[in-house]
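STRUCTURE:
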């Protein structure tokens, strides 16, 4: 028998290498990254800590807003159903405390307060009795524009609430790549200083410093990319909520004009 037939083929050799050594190599690579971080200079470590803080805070805001906006959508839909089915504003006012997360509730309460204040001013009082015509006069609005202004103020307040903390995602998206770049520049500078100190350009001398530097860039991108995506996503959601509030304001004004002017 030919002795060469007993030798493994190149394909079997690489397959055996993948089966036997793939997992240890992956664990070794992970261990090398951890060792690089632990052996990094204090400046690079500070950069990595700052980027980690930005990343954790951003993800916390993302999960908070996803949960919050989902509840807002649900309560807004419920409020609109009640508002459109109710015959009196007082019936809508009664359900407002249970739907407080909806920005439409804040707008309704502001408009309802202004409407009630004007109707009370136009109602007969002992100092200003109604004329003796047999029928009590119907209370009327003195200024529909004042109701509109109250709705606009409430709308601006609610939009500010919806946008709260979202701007932090924009801050994270804009500055974390530069913070990571600073760590990269500092790490490469340290690598070149190490080359000068040892007088060698061998890969074993250069590679650790450059790898340490690139970790800062990678973490900066890891923090920035999700922040950009979710900032755009939440900005579009706020625009949708603002559009719904504008529609509700017009609907509220139409009802007020039909019934109280």
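SEQUENCE:
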């Amino acid at each position: 028998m030919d002795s060469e037939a007993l030798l493994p083929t190149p394909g079997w050799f690489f397959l055996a290498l993948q089966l036997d050594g793939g997992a240890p190599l992956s664990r070794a690579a992970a261990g090398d990254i951890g060792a690089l971080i632990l052996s990094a200079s204090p400046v690079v470590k500070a950069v990595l800590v700052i980027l980690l803080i930005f990343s954790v805070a951003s993800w916390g805001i993302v999960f908070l807003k996803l949960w919050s906006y989902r509840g807002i959508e649900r309560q807004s839909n419920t409020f609109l159903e009640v508002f459109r089915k109710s015959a009196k504003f007082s019936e809508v006012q009664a359900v407002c405390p249970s739907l407080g997360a909806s920005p439409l509730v804040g707008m309704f309460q502001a408009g309802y307060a202004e409407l009630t204040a004007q109707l009370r001013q136009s109602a007969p009082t002992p100092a200003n009795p109604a004329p003796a015509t047999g029928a009590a006069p119907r209370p009327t609005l003195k200024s529909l524009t004042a109701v509109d202004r109250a709705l606009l103020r409430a709308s601006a307040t609610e939009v500010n609430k919806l946008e709260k903390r979202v701007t932090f995602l924009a801050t994270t998206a804009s500055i974390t790549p530069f913070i990571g770049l600073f760590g990269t520049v500092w790490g490469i500078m340290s690598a070149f200083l190490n080359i000068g100190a040892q007088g060698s350009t061998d890969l074993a001398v250069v590679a650790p410093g450059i790898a340490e530097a690139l970790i800062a860039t990678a973490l900066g991108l890891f923090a920035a990319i999700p922040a950009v995506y979710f900032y755009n996503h939440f900005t579009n959601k706020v625009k949708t909520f603002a559009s719904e509030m504008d529609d509700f304001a017009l609907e509220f004004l139409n009802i007020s004009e039909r019934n109280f002017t």
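REMARK: The chain has seven helices and no strands.
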